[in-house]
Write a structure and sequence with these properties.
Bound molecules: zinc ion
Number of strands: 9
Number of domains: 3
Strand content: 15-25%
Structural class: alpha+beta
Largest sheet: 4 strands, antiparallel
């Protein structure tokens, strides 16, 4: 898709030559915004309608429309820039990107080019562990489409397909909030299992939940809450709570 980036690159270069700098990603966006093109304004549309032979010049990479987006990471930036560039600013809050949550990522990411989720249902066990199938090279051949870990693919040796279980160290904020009101259990000092309730979710750099047992409120991390929720589940099934 190199042809797609050719016009912006050319524009940035010619602007630089005339003294207009694009020193940041935002400046590149602001300067390239003028390259936006709607399908109605496409030079090719007229030819298409008339079936004009001049359409040939469109070739493989001729473009009908072009949209230029800018990705920001904070709501404030999003609100501020959306005023001027309405609909062209995308918000990508990376705080809870699950595949790198808590600085934990899939091992050896540098050689990795294909990640498939092979889960068929939401895992039941907490903390959630998602099964993944990883390959060093992507492939869409007739064998790989059916089964990524086949041995008939010509490049299967280089693909190095393997399974990996990704254990999450947190959940999305919406999911975290949905736990408020659920039951939890813990073992008291005397060894008895007592029942409590998740009363609040605190959204911060690390996720915490306020968990209440009688008069006492604890602030618990994801790991601890998972443990308490699991114990609650088990206890309810076995019915061993007084
Ligand atoms: Zn293949």
């Amino acid at each position: 898709m190199e042809a797609v980036g050719k016009d912006p690159a050319r524009l940035i270069r010619s602007l630089e030559l005339s003294g207009i700098r694009s020193e940041s990603a935002y400046k590149v966006f602001a300067n390239c915004h003028r390259l936006e093109k709607k399908r109605e304004d496409s030079e090719w549309l007229e030819y298409e309608i008339r079936g004009d032979v001049a359409l040939k010049r469109k070739g493989k990479y001729g473009m009908d429309s072009r949209t230029v987006w800018y990705v920001v990471e904070s709501q404030e930036e999003y609100d501020r820039l959306s005023v001027q560039y309405h609909g062209r600013v995308l918000l990508c809050d990376r705080t809870f990107t699950l595949d790198t949550l808590g600085g934990k990522s899939i091992p050896d990411t540098k050689s990795l080019h294909e990640v498939r989720s092979v889960a068929t249902q939401v895992p039941e066990e907490l903390p959630y562990t998602w099964p993944l199938r990883l390959s060093n090279l992507p492939c869409n051949c007739k064998y790989c489409v059916v089964n990524p870990s086949n041995n008939d693919c010509k490049i299967s040796t280089w693909r190095h397909t393997r399974d990996y279980n990704m254990k999450l160290v947190g959940v999305s904020p919406a999911h975290a909030n949905s736990w408020v009101g659920s039951g939890v259990c813990m073992k008291a000092a005397d060894g008895l299992v007592i029942v409590g309730l998740i009363v609040a979710y605190v959204h911060g750099k690390s996720q915490t939940w306020s968990v209440q047992f009688g008069e006492t409120v604890h602030s618990w991390t994801y790991e601890k809450v998972c443990e308490a929720k699991s114990l609650f589940m088990k206890t309810m099934v076995s019915g061993s709570v007084e």
